[in-house]
Amino acid sequence: MHEPADDARDPPSIYARRAAPDPGEAFDGDRIVDVAVVGGGLTGLSAALHLAEAGSRVSVVEARSIGWGASGRAFGQLVPYLKHGHSETIAHYGAERGERVVDAIGNGPRFVFKLIERLGIDCDLVQTGLLFGAHSTAGQRTLARRAAYWQGRGVPVAMLDRTQSQAAIGGAPYYVGALLDPRGGHVNPLALSRGLAHAAGRAGASIHTGTIANRLDRVG
Q: Closest Cα to residue 204, out of 56, 70, 104, 80?
């Protein structure tokens, strides 16, 4: 019988076995800061780190533990794409802004790799690229269009045929083709989250876990 999750405890996670301890502590007393970051996930912790490094007084408040939610439970792949393809992104935002969004996402893995290296975060980083498999000829055509787009921008992505795909995926016969993108990689997401929290703390940010933000007031 499935038991409902207890939100008061961290869920069991293999990621936790190779992650640094949670550096957060409960909030005690009053504090005036330049920026209060609500949520101790990857986005909030990165914001806190960079703000603290720029000289701002920063506090992070997290209701549970660092990386408790999706940031500590994701599959850990660093993907240089959005859910929707480049054409949909450009159509939505327009040519200028759309291209900027596509470029930013495409450079995302490299940004994370450099950040991990600079901060010395131990998070089981793997930088061997990502394979995107196609189960059908239609999917193969979609990947081929993606490959052509990025090859036109100087990115050495490669299309693999059926034989090459099966060899790259350990002999699995399910794919008619695949795209190999060397920009991608993999991390232990919980270890990365906690590593960012430790780095933000070293930069001067205060990290508070078990601390619920229950009110926001607009002043001015």
A: 56
- By the 8 A CB rule, do 40 and 198 touch? no
Work out how many domains the chain is built from and give that number. 3
Domain that holds residue 110: 77-124
Would residue 51 count as lying in a domain? yes
Question: Residue 2: what pLDDT?
Answer: 37
pLDDT at residue 10, as a whole number? 66
- Work out whether strand 58-62 and strand 206-209 pair parallel, antiparallel, or are unpaired: parallel
Cα–Cα nearest to 147, from 125, 135, 130, 171:
130
Name the stretches of the chain with pLDDT < 70.
1-11
Give the model confidence (pLDDT) of 85-107 as tens digits. 899 999 999 999 999 999 999 99
